[in-house]
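(Deposited chain)
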Amino acid sequence: MKNDQKQTQPQKLLTIGGWDPCGAFGVPADLKTFAALDTHGMGVMTVVTAQNSVGWYGAEFIPADFVAQQLDAVLGDYGADGVKTGFLGRVDLIEIIGAKLREYQIKNIVIDPVLINAGGRPMFGPEVLDAYKEWLFPLATAITPNRYELSLLVNGETELWALSDESVSKVFEWQEQLGGGEGQSAVIAKGLELEEGHLADALLTNGQMMQVSHAKVDTQNVSGTGDSLSAALTAFLACGATLEDAFEKASLATAGAIALSADWQLGQGPGPIAHKGFS
């Protein structure tokens, strides 16, 4: 049956990052999150990967000038109500992306700084972190590192960040130093261990911390969790939510998406989350 009811025009969201051919991580995960939240998703590729649930086999970076062409094509026509960055990995890419976000005066920017993998192994040299600090962090509404990345940002060490009064104070100090006169970027710490059987995400901004806790799901299907949380945060911000409300909604929706996929076995290894949980 034909549906003649007109749809409300969606918010336009752009993800800038890597392509995962299996659809668990990166741009595919972000686009599925955007779609589940009834927004219009757009994607600019920085790198194409060969990976699956059991291994990483290679990657080919997109030349910076072609990334710039993609950005001009999207932002010069559609524009964007919110932008999220993921896998960047090269100084020239970070510089051109930062320059374009400034040029087009983009708001609601969420930076997921892909620097260290989930196992704690650094993926790039220190020059990439320096480029983030100069070109992207000052523009960010929120920065969403994993716990290894947060420790690197705040302490300069590759170790697992743990929640404590001292570690939280150091994050606040780092945020103050980062501002550079352009405002203070919020930081979201993900997957914090609480009492047995529970996890939490924490929002740290303006000297205050807000936590959202949820039951830990016994599953290996958590691929793309951080990507999708960041994408959901971008969507909620672009749709007019406050930072606190956007964070709470994104955190709880991500936990729900993990629970929905708990029993899946799509590949031979850890699988993706169920993006239907965001709708």
In short: The chain has a mean pLDDT of 94.
